[in-house]
Design a protein that fits this description.
Strand 4, helix 8 and strand 5 form a beta-alpha-beta unit. The longest helix has 21 residues. This protein folds into two domains: about 140 residues, HAD superfamily/HAD-like (Rossmann fold); about 70 residues. The radius of gyration is 17 Å and the shape is globular. With about 220 residues, the chain is of the alpha/beta class. About 50% of the residues lie in helices and about 15% in strands.
């Protein structure tokens, strides 16, 4: 029986995946259209990885630059400035808010996201949804490590937890820990999960009934 739900944020709770894809493109457009497009495509194919890891990788791969920690912080802040307000103002995934509010009475709920810790806390505070979750977990700790930490703290077995995600990092974390996985399917991830045998939902309106069937 499912007793806890792990949610990714972008693309699961908020329709904010395209906002971040476009922001990464804008961040690197000064280096040319080709690099900006490669950066955007890499982000789409590797959603859920910390922006710090991505920026360090892109600078090394596309620009031949081993970026310093101080420079990395500056680039990450540039990205944050581009997206934070837009993420807050973006629409919820259909059914997300009402479903999360309702399921909070029955399940322990957590957010596990690649968004930096201070930023996801700020976003949730502005949206007034912080109280709906037992814990909000952001980067730099990755999703596999967060699951490793949370599962023993919660005191549940792996089969009592479901991960609701839209990125390969969500799927990988669920598989690594033998958790149930539900894919929130959308345009950016259809091809990535086309050959994977997972439960797929287009929005969160049906999430409660899907979880009951897993039970």
């Amino acid at each position: 029986m499912i007793k806890a739900i792990f949610y990714d944020f972008d693309g699961v709770i908020k329709e904010s995946t395209e906002i971040k894809s476009k922001a990464f493109y804008d961040l690197y457009i000064e280096f040319g259209e080709e690099i900006a497009q490669q950066v955007e495509q890499y982000h789409i194919e590797h959603g859920g990885i910390s922006r710090f890891e991505k920026i360090r990788y892109w600078h090394k791969t596309h620009l031949g630059i081993n970026i310093t920690d101080n420079e990395l912080q500056l680039w990450a802040q540039k990205f944050s400035d581009l997206v934070l307000k837009k993420v807050v103002e973006s629409p919820y995934v259909k059914g997300a808010l009402n479903t999360i509010q309702k399921l909070g009475d029955e399940y322990q709920q957590y957010i596990i996201t690649g968004t930096p810790q201070n930023e996801i806390e700020q976003i949730c505070d502005q949206l007034e949804i912080t109280s709906l979750f037992k814990q909000i977990c952001g980067s730099p700790t990755n999703k596999i490590k967060w699951c490793s930490q949370l599962i023993p703290e919660i005191g549940l077995s792996n089969t009592e937890i479901v991960f609701i995600g839209d990125a390969t990092t969500d799927y990988d974390a669920a598989i690594h820990h033998n958790l149930h996985f539900v894919l929130r399917e959308h345009e950016e991830n259809e091809a990535l999960f086309a050959n994977k045998s997972v439960i797929k939902i287009k929005d969160l309106l049906s999430l409660e009934s899907v979880i009951k069937k897993i039970n």
